[in-house]
Amino acid sequence: KIYKCLARGKFKKEKINLLVGDKVEFTITNSEKQEGVIEQILPRKNELKRPKMSNLTQIILVVSMKMPNPDLLLLDKQLIFAEFMGLKATIVLNKVDLEDKKEIDKIFELYKNAKEGINIEEIRDLLNGEITAFAGNSGVGKSTLINSIFKQELTQEGNISDKNQRGKNTTTSTTLYKYKENSYIADTPGFSTYEINEIPKEDLCHYFVEFVP
């Protein structure tokens, strides 16, 4: 069942923000209307700033081969942060039909020692029993991929700005969709910048998995 809940005033007083992915305890105030009040947030396994979520188990990093072009520095930062947070990470190269195979192979070679690249058919197998966020900069096709997985129009697909070939951010809030039993998918807003200031610079080398050997 889905209940529409308000949060107790104590959360605001204690400056505690509820996050998508939080597990909570709540009191039913109107069973007919399915309304309630959130009483308590259970301890979080993790908390991410981008996407702003909690209790994630894995992240799928979507990289567009064209419109917008791949931003590999942003991808590196996301991979490092996923490693820092102990999340499983997978790279999906999207819009491959718009780019020359040589360019696709170049990126695949660059990251094959760090993470495995997969296609849409294989993504579904990865989702079972996981809380997964699809993340990446605006316009890379996260919403389109999620619609393909569910085989229905769940999320709104963004357009590309003609002026600068960058994505327009159609998804403005993080939404969690139930995929199967104990399996959830989050569609998240796109972004153009990504900082990893939480990681001390002397520790940065430990989060490049291809450096481990």
Task: Please explain how this structure is put together.
- This protein has 213 residues and is an alpha/beta fold.
- The chain is built from five helices and ten strands; from the N terminus they run βαβββββαβααβαββ.
- The strands form three sheets. It has a five-stranded mixed beta sheet, sandwiched between helices. The chain has a three-stranded mixed beta sheet with strand order 1-3-2.
- The longest helix is centred in the middle third of the chain and has 14 residues, at 72-85.
- It starts with a strand and ends in a 26-residue tail after the last strand.
Kindly report the spatial arrangement of strands forming the biggest sheet: 7-6-8-10-9
- As a percent range, the share of helical residues equals 10-25%
Structural class: alpha/beta
What is the element string, with H for helices and E for strands? EHEEEEEHEHHEHEE
Q: Which regions have little confidence, pLDDT < 50, spanning 5+ residues?
A: 157-171
Please tell me how large the radius of gyration is. Answer: 19 Å
How many strand segments?
Answer: 10
Features:
213 residues; 3-stranded mixed sheet; 5 helices; alpha/beta; 5-stranded mixed sheet; single chain
